[in-house]
Design a protein that fits this description.
The complex is a heterodimer of chains A (638) and B (259). Chain A has 638 residues and is mostly helical. In chain A, 73% of the residues lie in helices and 2% in strands. The two termini of chain A are 30 Å apart. Chain B has a domain of 179 residues: P-loop containing nucleotide triphosphate hydrolases (Rossmann fold, 3-Layer(aba) Sandwich), CATH 3.40.50.300. Helices cover 36% and strands 26% of the residues of chain B. A 6-stranded mixed beta sheet of chain B has the order 6-9-10-3-11-12, with helices on both faces. In chain B, 48% of the residues are buried. The chains are: A mainly alpha (638), B alpha/beta (259).
């Protein structure tokens, strides 16, 4: 022990210990949000979603969304969350994939009618708890073997994987005479359990005319709350609120709502442009009013100072955007996409344009970032330039793209972003940034943020779950979703809560982060890890049961090999392979990302074999960017 | 001093088979005092710690707490008796927050089984308060321990041990991996722990770190005690000479033998 101490390089410790007397600098809201493991996953999800939305005809429609969410909910999502918890605890379970199939087979086998070739003929009420007990037993065995032998879980669970695989094939052949087992319907209480594990929701039979009202208003309310939440987290609160600001806020909101209503009622470019302008005025007035009402105004805004480098950045940014527009206009466009898309004329055009546009916007963003350190007035000018840059992009796309969804949706989204950047520039230059911890403001901010997100999700859910008469008349193909989504949401929520709030959750992070340390202070490390293995196998049981109800005939090799997809989903969701860091929510989002190519590729009418290429690329990008985000976050924390 | 010392060791020896790790070591620590155990590599410091923390039982000799003879057969027994050891690796999880590390393994909970959750508000408040008592003012207990400086990490470990009922605190080379300034910070925390009435056993090989905080010094060399002194019996120079002398002598012998 003493020898190790003497040879331990003092430099590495000293390097982390530079500013011992300094109080830690206040972390801004973005720095605080970015150290969360799920943030990278959310950004990735938006990126992959946008990609498939752009290249395919049907991705993003209710049918494709249901197909996508069902892949997540029926196996990948639940398993990814459980596997993520295990990975945070520092272990792997390679038997998890085979377990899902095994549990499905077991569930069916117990309820199968007795006959010449196997089956126990018992009701589901027996089959379900029995299956769970077997699953927990296997999990306990995995955990205990890993702890007792001290061998890596990678090897131990590889052994269990082969054992389960062999058992599945051997027993299926022995008792059923073939390598598939069918079916759950033979259970005497099948009708009771079917709605619980396989209830479906037919979209086309649920008509709801007020749907679009909720679909429009809830997301808008959500985005409003998100913006206000960021303001709460960003600015310094006033001692006493200024009522004049509240009035201004309400007027702005009223104008904005009127604008949205006007846009809804009018058609044609002129009406849309006018109502768009009304909305813009409303948003700016409302945000400014809200800030006046609650936050401390900046005393010294300073005067605009644009030095050479900043001028060059701004002008360069616009030059790149205009060059992009020239490229886009000069090359002929067509809207056919295929997987070798990057090598077609149109692909080259799209890639060139995207690169030029991104470079231009990045230059403008850098200028705006640099302006932050000069003074608020300069920051306002530079950020307004960024907003204008986004407008240039939006207009280019509107004028040049042939695809209707780019001309309408993307155009609107970009203009909205530009509006938000501009109004944000306005308030950032006029109100004081908070540079200290304010627990009340933070709590209010996070609650607003959460409510905002939920509101957006509920609004989207309205769109997905209900159909309007107009859509029915237009002949929207029938689509359905199932109760599996609720199982996924419930399981994820429970795991998020357990990991974040309970003693056990804390111990998971502890044993994954530094097992010896955890043991020294009295954390039951072996028990915690064994319980984690049992959680994974219980999740495999749940997935197996959902599977048994979904497809009546289970192949003996069902699930084999999927364990790596679970691990990839967890990693994409921000979990560290070495343990001690990650989140259940991130893993759920990771699973959603992983499922996107599956649906996206078929929506784009490409060969589905390309999927693996996407999985590989996504994993690689996720690992690299997660590492970058984490290093950045660590650096900022110091 | 009328009452018996908080912890007293008399003629402690430890043999591992035919290897003599420690012979006839005697020292003591009082509540509110710091006893420094000095020794170079291989002097028997690790064995000394392992005996007190219950990892090994001594082959010979007696350990007394408050005058009563005790034996520690297991680390748990030593902990229960109020002896807490802060190891070099500090038993911390770098990616976890300060308050979680402070409470690790003994988190306060709310609610009834099976639905129990950590009382985060209370946990954070106590962690902050206890650290403040050690003289370290953490602005945000949410920050990961990995971002603290080495000295601050030591103080979290010390504060944790003190809060969970330690009477005797054993610090295993807390300054060995630190720079000069950081070491000073740790010495300050040792004093803070002492002022809170803990008996501190400070294991180190650096007499310059030991002398300013120590009330009693025990020098180990090759498993033997080279003396057990109160501060008044010893000057800083004498202490330095005793530590350096041992090492020099070893080297000299080595050189002579190899000609």
């Amino acid at each position: 022990m003493t020898d190790a101490a003497a040879s331990q390089p003092a430099a590495s410790v000293a390097a982390t210990a530079v500013d011992d007397d300094e109080r830690l600098a206040y972390r801004s809201i973005f720095q605080r949000l970015f150290i969360r493991p799920e943030v990278g996953a959310i950004i990735g999800a938006i990126g992959v979603w946008t990609f498939f939305w752009a290249v395919s005809g049907t991705f993003g429609t209710a049918g494709a969304s249901f197909g996508w969410i069902d892949i997540v909910a029926s196996s990948l999502g639940i398993m990814a969350v459980a596997v993520a918890a295990l990975m945070i605890g520092g272990e792997f379970d390679l038997s998890s994939g085979a377990m899902t199939g095994a549990m499905a087979m077991l569930t069916i086998f117990i309820v199968k009618e007795t006959g010449d070739l196997g089956g126990l003929g018992l009701p589901m009420a027996v089959s379900l708890p029995l299956g769970l007990a077997v699953a927990l037993g296997i999990g306990w065995l995995n955990g205990t073997m890993v702890e007792r032998t001290g061998q890596p879980s990678f090897i131990i669970t590889l052994a269990t994987f082969f054992a389960i695989k062999g058992l599945k094939l051997g027993l299926a052949n022995r008792f059923v005479g073939q390598i598939q087992v069918a079916s759950t319907e033979e259970a005497s209480d099948y009708d009771f359990w079917r709605p619980i594990f396989a209830g479906v929701w037919e979209r086309n039979t649920h008509q709801f005319e007020a749907r679009d009202f909720f679909y429009t208003s809830l997301p808008l309310l959500g985005f409003t709350l998100i913006v206000l939440a960021i303001a709460e987290l960003w600015f310094t609160r006033r001692e006493t609120p200024n009522p004049a600001g509240l009035i201004q806020f309400l007027i702005g909101m009223a104008v904005g709502v009127a604008g949205v209503g006007a846009m809804h009622l009018t058609d044609g470019t002129g009406g849309n442009a006018l109502s768009g302008a009304i909305i813009a005025v409303g948003v700016i007035v409302a945000l400014h009013g809200y800030c006046t009402w609650r936050f401390e105004p900046t005393t010294n805004r300073g005067s605009v100072q644009i030095d050479t480098s900043m001028r060059n950045r701004i002008l360069g940014g616009f030059a790149l955007l205009i060059a992009g527009a020239v490229v886009a206009f000069s090359i002929d466009s067509s809207s056919e996409t295929e997987i070798i898309f990057p090598f077609t004329t149109q692909g080259v055009r799209a890639i060139l344009y995207v690169m030029l546009a991104v470079a231009g916007l990045a230059l403008l963003a850098v200028a705006s970032q640099k302006a932050l350190s000069i003074n608020p007035a300069t920051k306002f000018v530079a950020t307004t330039a960024s907003a204008l840059g986004v407008v240039v992009v939006a207009v280019t796309i509107f004028l040049d793209s042939e695809a209707a969804k780019f001309r309408s949706s993307l155009f609107t989204i970009l203009l909205t972003i530009a509006l938000l950047i501009f109004s944000w520039a306005l308030v950032v230059s006029r109100f004081d940034e908070r540079r200290y911890v304010d627990r009340d403001a933070d709590r209010a901010g996070y609650r607003l943020l959460l409510t905002g997100f939920l509101s957006v999700l509920v609004g989207i859910a309205f769109r997905l779950l209900f159909i309007t008469e107009a859509e029915l008349l237009a002949g929207v193909p029938p689509t359905k979703t199932s109760v599996r989504v609720l199982w996924f949401v419930a399981f994820t929520s429970v795991m998020v809560w357990v990991l974040a709030r309970t003693k056990f959750g804390g111990w998971v992070f502890a044993v994954g982060g530094n097992k010896e340390a955890a043991r020294q202070v009295g954390v039951p490390a072996a028990r915690t890890k064994t319980q984690l293995f049992m959680i994974v196998s219980a999740a495999a049981w749940l997935v197996g049961v959902l599977l048994a109800f979904r497809i009546n005939s289970i192949q003996a090799n069902t699930g084999d090999g999927e364990e790596f997809e679970f691990i990839i989903a967890a990693v994409v969701g921000g979990c560290l392979l070495t343990g001690g860091y990650g989140s259940a929510m991130g893993a759920a989002i990771g699973a959603m990302i992983m499922a996107m190519p599956l649906i996206g590729i078929s929506a784009a009418r490409w060969n589905t074999d390309w999927r693996f290429l996407f999985l590989g690329v996504i994993l690689l990008v996720a690992v690299v960017s997660n590492r970058y985000i984490r290093l950045k976050a660590e650096a900022l924390r110091r | 001093m009328s009452t018996a010392p908080l912890l007293e060791l008399e003629d402690i020896s430890k043999y591992y088979g035919n290897i003599i790790a420690l012979t006839d070591v005697t020292t003591s620590v009082n509540a509110g005092e710091v006893t420094c155990v000095l020794g170079d590599n291989g002097a028997g410091k690790s064995t000394f710690i392992k005996i007190l923390s219950g990892v090994h039982e001594p082959t010979d000799g007696t350990v007394r707490m408050n005058g009563e003879e005790v034996t520690f057969g297991h680390p748990r027994e030593s902990l229960d008796a109020g002896i807490a050891t802060v190891y070099q690796d500090l038993a911390m999880v770098p990616l976890m927050s300060v308050w979680r590390n402070f409470w690790m393994g003994a988190e306060p909970t709310k609610g009834r089984w099976p639905i129990q959750w950590i009382d985060t508000k209370k946990a954070k408040a106590i962690a902050k308060d206890e650290l403040f008592k050690m003289g370290i003012d953490i602005r945000d207990t949410e920050q990961p321990v990995g971002t603290l400086s080495g000295g601050e990490r030591q103080s979290v470990a010390i504060a944790r041990a003190a809060y969970f009922g330690a009477k005797v605190l054993i610090l295993d080379e807390p300054t060995s991996a630190l720079g000069v300034k950081q070491s000073g910070v740790v010495l300050k925390y040792i004093k803070a722990a002492r002022d809170r009435g803990l008996g501190v056993i400070f294991i180190t090989h650096n007499p310059h770190h030991a002398y300013p905080v120590g009330d009693r010094f025990m020098i180990l060399n090759r498993g033997r005690s080279m003396g057990n002194f109160a501060k008044e019996e010893l000057t800083r120079d004498e202490l330095v000479r005793m530590m350096a002398g041992g090492a020099e002598l070893d080297q000299l012998t080595h050189e002579i033998e190899n000609g």
